[in-house]
Write a structure and sequence with these properties.
446 residues; alpha/beta; Rossmann fold; six-stranded parallel beta sheet; four-stranded mixed beta sheet; 15 helices; 15 strands; globular; binds 2-acetamido-2-deoxy-beta-D-glucopyranose
């Protein structure tokens, strides 16, 4: 076995003994069915925002804003649970409002944490399984089979759901916060994810896991690593493989905050969606960070006679009329994004490039509600700017202990990376080479 061992000085004696037995995480060697030992490193898929399915249940504290929201949806059985995200009913105008009021989060300054709307319980079902990541919407070809192609490609390569292939969905509205600030929901997710990684490892002959994370999922994965000691990381995580992760946020997120982003879903009132999207903590997390964007002017508002860089985010939030977000951004999010800790395990970043991506925005005399008057595009994956996709990688690669690879995928978009043929081939090639114990080299496909 070629497992990279943690520096021995950092490893407690008991763990050292077990390392010498299995060379990674604690495990009972498991002969696989049929006699031959399974040789794959378990893969854990961590989706980005839109790829998580959320269920909701309304309690008697729920205060519907309209009669429609009182009666919709007519839930029978299932303990009152119904699908909140993604459900095509969001497209029907009066129901968009019901959807938005149930999705909204509230920041409670006294608790210094986020919570759901009163009377709305939410849950992520099937944690551990990839089924909700493969969600196929029968009515609509939107978000269809979010990670389905990737999961089935891994299955063709020998992986099996529940054996060495797992999914780690989460409530994508919640995020994490900098040191000293509670994040009940986000921290509970990291705890669950940690257990899943350990379980997967033990169930697979002690082989450490490969985390395959799309978009925001990469930021959660990095926090999982950063919040656990180095010996834990090296023993349980073989590689972090990120797909389109916005290490430093994206300029498009400022457009989401200013004017709403319907994610290409037609007929939806952007302003209703905007008010809901603004309340999502993870959206604050995805705003462009000073570390990556520096002093560059990202937004100009003629109405306010002001321009904003990533350093002016609190002023920007104030000027778009989202005062509620200012304090949370300042005390919780800014410290989180300022520190972009080293993963401490080998990382491969797959990034799409050459797709027009919002680089700066000019809002006219009508202010933010009217939408941008001018949009300037630059390089990126159509959602995340190139600077954010690769920025921190440069800093990490200065550290001799940090193994890091970047694989560039020309003309592959932010979501396209999950089903583009070339992207999938690269992912499988990387997973295969890890499983085949091949030497790690840097490569750039032409
Ligand atoms: C592959 O595994 C063998 C032991 O099976 C080990 O000696 C070798 O160093 C490993 N190669 C790499 C590149 O890690
Ligand atoms: C950014 O602005 C600050 C002050 O506003 C200045 O001190 C710093 O040198 C600027 N950095 C760059 C890279 O221009
Ligand atoms: C806009 O701001 C600049 C300085 O930033 C100032 O010189 C100018 O007078 C302002 N224009 C208006 C119309 O307020
Ligand atoms: C943006 O930040 C820079 C540097 O910190 C500062 O000089 C400038 O006044 C700020 N602009 C706004 C609109 O707040």
């Amino acid at each position: 076995m070629e497992e990279r061992r943690p520096p021995l000085a950092l490893v407690p004696t008991a763990v050292m003994v077990m390392l010498s037995l299995s060379s990674c995480c604690v495990s009972a060697a498991r002969p696989a069915a049929g006699g031959a030992e399974q040789q794959l490193h378990p893969v854990i898929l961590i989706p980005g925002t839109g790829g998580n399915q959320l269920e909701a249940r309304l309690t008697e504290d729920y205060r519907p804003s309209s009669l429609v929201c009182r009666v919709w949806p007519p839930v029978r059985g299932r303990g009152g649970w119904f699908r909140l995200w993604f459900d095509p009913s969001v497209l029907i105008a009066p129901l968009t409002r019901c959807f938005a009021e149930r999705m909204k989060l509230y920041y409670d300054p006294a608790a210094d944490d986020y919570r759901n709307a009163p009377g709305v319980e939410t849950r992520v079902s099937d944690f551990g399984s990839t089924s909700t990541l493969r969600y196929l919407d029968p009515n609509l070809k939107l978000l269809t089979g979010y990670m389905n192609t990737l999961a089935s490609t891994l299955e063709k390569a020998g992986y099996e759901e529940g054996r060495d292939l797992f999914g780690a969905p989460y409530d994508f509205r919640y995020g994490l916060a900098g040191p000293g600030h509670p994040s009940q929901v986000g921290s509970a997710y990291l705890q669950r994810l940690k257990l899943l990684v350990e379980t997967a490892c033990v169930a697979n002959g002690g082989r450490p896991a490969i985390l395959v994370a799309h978009s925001l999922g990469g930021l959660f994965a990095l926090q999982l690593l950063a919040r656990n000691p180095l010996p834990w990381r090296t023993a349980h995580v073989k590689r972090l493989l990120t797909l389109s992760t916005p290490w430093g946020g994206s300029v498009q997120e400022m457009l989401t905050f200013a004017s709403g982003n319907t994610l290409g879903v037609p007929f939806v009132d952007a302003s209703i969606i905007r008010d809901e999207q603004r309340t999502s903590e993870s959206n604050l997390w995805l705003l462009p960070t000073p570390k990556v964007f520096g002093n560059t002017t990202l937004v100009v508002s003629r109405y306010h006679n002001r321009s904003y860089s990533a350093k002016n985010m609190t002023q920007f939030l104030r000027d778009i009329g989202f005062e509620e977000g200012v304090e949370s951004y300042r005390v919780r999010i800014r410290p989180l994004v300022e520190a972009l800790p080293e993963p401490g395990v080998p990382v491969t970043c797959l990034v799409g490039t050459g797709v027009d991506t919002v680089e700066s925005l000019v809002f006219g005399d009508g202010g933010y509600d009217e939408g941008p008057e001018k949009v300037v595009y630059g390089d990126g994956d159509g959602t995340v700017n190139l600077a954010s996709l690769v920025g921190p990688i440069k800093a990490w690669s200065d550290s001799p202990a940090q193994v890091i690879e970047v694989v560039e995928l020309p003309k592959v978009s932010h979501l396209g990376i999950l089903n583009d043929k070339n992207a999938l081939e690269q992912i499988i090639r990387i997973v295969d080479s890890i499983n085949l114990n091949a030497t790690s080299t840097s490569y750039h496909p032409s």
